[in-house]
Request: fold
Amino acid sequence: MSRPSDLLQGTLDLLLLKILALEPLHGWAVSQRLKQVSGDVLQVSDGSLYPALHKLEQEGWIAAEWKTSELGRRARFYSLTTVGRRHMEKEAANWDRLSSAISHVVRLTEI
Amino acid sequence: MPLSNWILIVPLRFRSLLRRAQVERDLDDEFRFHLEMKERYEIAHGRSVPEARLAAMRAMDGLEQHKEKCRDMRRVNFIEHLLQDLRYTLRMMAKSPAFTLIALVTLALGIGANTAIFSTVDSVLMRALPFDDPERLVMVWEDNSRAGYPKNTPAPGNFADWTARNRVFSEMEATRGTRANLTGDGTPEFVFGRMVTASFFPVLGVQPLIGRTFSVEEDRTNAPVVVISYALWHRRYLNDKAVIGNPIVMDGAKVTIIGVMPREFVFRQRDADFWRPIAFTAADLTQRGNHFLNVIARLRPGVTIEQARKDMSAVAAAMSKEYRENEHVGATIVPLREELVGNTRPGLLVLITASGSVLLIACANLASLLLARGMVRQREMAVRAAVGAGRGRLLRQMITEGLALATVGGVLGIAVVPAGIRIMARLVPESMPPTAEPALDARLLGFALALSLVTGLLFSILPAWQVARDSLQKNLSQGGRAGMSARTRRLRDALVVTEIALALVLLVAAGLMVRTMAKLQNMELGFRADHLLVARTALSQDRYPSAAARTSFTDRVLDGIRALPGVKAAAYGSTLPFQSGGNTAGYRIEGRTLEPNDPGDALYRAGSDGYLTTLGVQLLEGRVLDRKDRAGAAPVVVVNESFARRYWPAESALGHRITVDQPDVVWRTIVGVVADVRERGYLLDARPAIYAPVAQQSLWHASELIVRAQGDPLSLAPAVRRIVGNVDPEQPVAAVRTMEGILDLAVADRRQQMALLGTFAGLALLLASLGIYGVLSYLVTQRSREIGLRMALGASASNVVRMVMRRGMLLTATGLAIGLGASWALTRLMKKLLYGVAATDSATLGGVSVLVAVVALLACCMPARRASRIDPILVLREE
Reply:
């Protein structure tokens, strides 16, 4: 079982959870929404997207359901669970702390 | 993880497990949907349909791998993979039946043998003894090292004082051996038993099967009560419960059976059939001259053995000042387990090490084989790596194969275990209780299973790691002949060298045992043990109250036996050679005071006329005892060479007089000197000894009958019984055996160890040579092109052979060097098993090295021959 670096993985998880917090989506829509919302900066490769989604499902943070899609055929829609929401909020707080600390240090060296 | 998560997750994972097919379809659908969406996206952004499709496909590069990752995330894979691996393993095993068969047989034998030996080690050395709190039971002995008896049976007077004065034991009990003739209710039977103090059974914590044991009152008054063994109850009274309260006749006196002990109850000797109160009198308890008790004690709670030793030393020191007989006598304490296990511990440990080594060598062989096969399967592994199996997956696959092989081997090995236990049975000391007998139970099965798993892991982990490494590094394009990496080759070489070293150590150990046995069996015993029939007729006090009566009996029996055809000689003795390490008596020499450090204690044997002659002891001076030496005639003795030389080194001992401690002081003339006899067995030295005519003394009765036969001694047994029956129909004849049988018994366990060790060593050598063969064989196959090239360029067949042989002998030499070093260091651990041979005996080391070298040479021969037969044209054309 190969894992991308933990920091990256954790961040990806947070992003996906956040996207799904807004509304239930299928995999394709999640990657498109992420791209859109971040102004094309954050693009998830298809190879990383689904393993991450399945892992989130395995951990119980998102739940999956087969629903009819805009194409007419069915697709697997993911939605955030209560525990997932709790986890997301915790991770978001961690991220805030981490990113402001990094920004702080990065700005320091500019003097 | 909080509980709420679990509630969600468990059904999820369960679903994944059970509806695997469904999950697969779902994954498929999900990815298909994604592809479609991607296509539409590309089309919407201006690509043509086929281009869009291609773009989408490319973006989903490695679809299988992504799916695999998703499956991994679901973590249900472990079980699925395991099942997959097992199925695959079975297919692979079926495809190479030869390898599978060899592997299974090797594993079955290895695991089975180790389990059998472990069972014995476990029951003898590890399992709890069937007594209450057995670790707090000890035996206490007198320590008279000065006289050469560091562990002497205590005298009653000392027992009494110890009991009164010690502060470390909560209880102290004494027992002594005894025997009796059972008559009256059936055939007369001679039985051994013990006389015990009242709390003997309680101190051990054993309850009788039926009835009860003695009370203190009964011990004090020497009540006519007896407790009998299960064996006696079974064979003489047929498990009839009504015997309780019934009187039986022992040595002519009526005693009542009050209890029967359980079948498993054994304390230090297997043949005790009854227990009677020891009934010490006040006079007994002050007697310190005769030593014959066994003393068992229980440590007080919280007292350690060290504290007990200190306390008893102090007590003994005080006593040595108060009593003349105790002048140099101390006390020594031995934990009960050590007492029972005796000196079997080193032997058992050596054996389990040996069998473990054989298993290790087998594992090394299998690992080497798997490494080689791994090369062949590299393609397969590379493909697996390409479709997404990570290193972990590959490792799991190969380890599962190994574990499966080992487990099946282990299950087969269990079939071998009962036979193995029977073989090991002789190595369980006689003194251990029957519950200690190893048997195939849940505990042992658990051990076998655990051993199988460990074995499987051991031999598959190295090849698995190596093959996974190699496969992941190679790309598929290399095609066909992926050779063995240098590291793998080195690994195989290292394995072979280790095997040879281990095999050498085992062979050295076995060789040392063989030499020990040879030394023991070629030992000069001082008497002739061949063709000697041995039996016992113990005369009971009530029917033979006087010495005259006993002499009359023995005379008539001997006359009758000597008249038989096929009998060369016959006699009676008190203690035969190899029957005891002691049985001594104090003596004084007329006109001489003994040196202060001379204990004045010699081996004492009483015999009828012709005793020494029948034994075949060599006469050095004077004469042996004959018929004339009777009560009323001049008192005489014969002494052995050690005795004579100690006191009369420059002159003849004949004519001097000694007295042997007895109620009456009688000066006896030495009329003969005989060569030393190894009375005390193989391992103990000969000592000064005195041989007295039984009719002229009252210290000992002579109950051991010996008959020197023309032919097979046992063939005389029926005639001997008949003659004894003619003289006294009520007299039991017991313990009919041959002298050679007694000697055999003395070395039976050693012989067993030697046989087992030899078998293991032989197996080890076989496996190691197979290892060399395997490595060289592979080498030749792999380098056949190179060899062909060399031959085409002018190398002769003998050059090629030399090359292969050199390789093989280099490996062997390295293994030998390491093995010799290891032997040097390790065999000193088995010193206790050896006799007359040093642990680093150079003859053994040299001989074994030559053997290994020769066998290795033979193993190299076939691959070498095959190399020389390589046709360069065929090989070079193969590209």
Observations:
- The first strand of chain A starts at residue 25 and ends at 26.
